[in-house]
Structure formats: C-alpha cells, structure tokens
Amino acid sequence: xxxKDVMFQIRxxxxxxxxxxxxxxxxxxxxxxxxNIQESKILEEDYVYVPKRxxxxxxxxxxxxxxxxxxxxxxSIVGKAAMVSQDMNASFGAFCKVLRPDxxxxxxxxxxxxxxxxxxxxxxxxxxxxxxxxxxxxxxFDNLDIPLPPLPIQKKIAAILDAADxxxxxxxxxxxxxxxxxxxxxxxxxxxxxxxPKGWEKYKGEDVCVKISVGVVIKPASYYVDKGVIAxxxxxxxxxxxxxxxxxxxSQETHKNELKKSILKDGDVVVVRTGNTGTAALxxxxxxxxxxxxxxxxxxxKSKLNANxxxxxxxxERGKELVAGKSVGGIHKHFNVGAMKGTNIPLPHIDLQRxxxxxxxxxxxxxxxxxxxxxxAEDLFNSLLQKAFNGEL
Length: 393
Description:
By secondary structure, the chain is an alpha+beta fold.
C-alpha cells in the first residue's frame, strides 16, 4: 500500500520576517522548524513566534502528526521525522511538512515507527539527492510503500516496538545521568567557575598551557582527499567526546608537510572556535596524530593544568558563560586563540585536579558499560523494526 492511502499532507506556514519574533507575546504562537526534530523526538524549544491570525486551523499540530524536514541546504537534515505526542498550540514552518494519519486505517505508534525504518531513510535520502536544494515534494511522500496489516496486527507490532524502544530510551537516560553526575562532581569539588566560591587563584590560559593555536583555516577544502588522515571540524567536537560519524581527510603527504602545525597529540584539548563556541573534547591516544580544521588546539602544561579539568571547565554551563564573554559577532559566535589565551581559569592544586580525573574515569567506566547495553538495545530495536516492516514479526 502507498503512504497516501493512510494519511494526508499539510504544508508548512509561510511568513515574512517582519511577522516573526524570538520572544513570546500575547496573540502569537510558536512555530517549529527542522531544528526542533532531533533523534525522532520533538524538541519544544528554540521557537520563533508568529501572529495567530496567519495560522490556519489545520496548520496547528495535533497528536499523531509526523513533522518532517522537507527542504534544507543540508541533505543530512532532509527527511528527519518525529511524531507529535499531544495536541499543540503551535504550527510549523514552510521548510517542514506534516503527515497526518487516518486513524481509522493506521495505528499511530505503527505509523511513527515507519519513519525510523531503513527503507524510509534510504528512499528519502535517494529522492533528496536527486532534487534541487534537497527539496522533497508531496508526491515523494505519497508514493512511499508501507506494509499495512489489519489494525489489530498493527497494534501488536507497535506494542513490541514500543517496548524495545522504551528499553533503549531508559538506557540513553542512564548515560545522560552519568554526564550529570560528572558535572555535579566538578561543582562539588571546585565550585562555580564564575563566582569562584572556593577562592582558587586564576591564571590566564597562556600561563598554564604550552601551546594554544588554531587548526587549518585557509581553504581547508582544497586539501581534502577521499581517504587519508582524519581532519576534525567543529561538527565533530561534542562536549567531552569526538564524533567521527562525518569526517573529512587530508592526504598523508600534505598532513606531514604543509599542515603539520595543526597535527593533534594524545592529551590535547580541541575547542570549537565558531558556532558552539567553547565546546571542548579531549584527544585520546586512539586519535593521536590526526589533524583539524578551524579548531583551537590547547596543549596544557601538565605540571599546572589537567586536560580533563580544562575540558570540564569549558563545557560547564558557567564556564560557557565565561567563554561567551570572550565571544564576538552576531549569529555565528567566534572564539579565537587570543580569547583562549586570555581566559581566566580558576586553578585548584594540580593534585586535586588529578583526583577529579580519577573519579571521572570511574564514572566513565560505568558509562561505557551503559553504552554497551545501549548498543545492544539499538541492535534489538533495529532488528525488530526490520522484521516488523518486512512482515516477519
């Protein structure tokens, strides 16, 4: 059966810039955009607001609607989908669309899980790659195939998938809890970095680091090759970790010669310079010797500053406030080498910093075990998902 047989589509809201605002006010309602779709969930934050009068009743989001990013300059965004869990006094923008299911024909949970299948993701990616500016049209969705057993069978399948999904979501929450515990440990041991209640002496970054420099900034794309040495970009740097799901490469020859100044070593801290300024992660021994683009490279003086402590300082909410104070620019915040050199860092005794690192390692080992459980939960869910929509469940 085709998707158009069990749902109908609603176009997103078009509005002018003068009609929108970032602040809520009476007679305005929020508008969701592609950024509100994350990991098959709706994030109820970072809204723009428009006057209620320009929104048609059918453009208000209802329970069971699947919100989809239908147009974007980035192909990785197009096709992202998430179900609305309850009626919302909110609408959605023109670069998105809603697929509203016919509940007399399809179970809501069954409908939701369909958009997590490899078939959906693979087909939509292929369609987007063949479209101008990665723009998905109504017929692209209408003509998608969906296996449709009778409603009672759909409900049984959905219940199995819901149970498997609940297990993986609980494991994700546990992993997030370890991150919270680490942040709490930092505050307990060292206090608020801004108010500095423990009275730690402060040192500028340049006084406690042996190197603060920047990765490749001049036409880095001109050095790209299909395979070679990994070159990290801002999108690869998440709080406390390096994400290698989308990387570019430099050739070995260029890496060792023209770009050798930006080679990273085990124990370096890389800091986002543009965008999510101040976000920091540690380079581990597994990544020793790779390169980077437009990132601040910090090599600490190990007798004064612990790299793990520095990462937690920069990634803490209050640490980010200090970094933001050094940021310049408008929408695209910029944190440069000079700002990093001049950042005042509260500096506990190095032995206390090392004790913090040891305690963090204990928490990380538990988090690693939880991650292994999550990997198994993801495998189980995806296996059940594939069987469900192949008629094997």
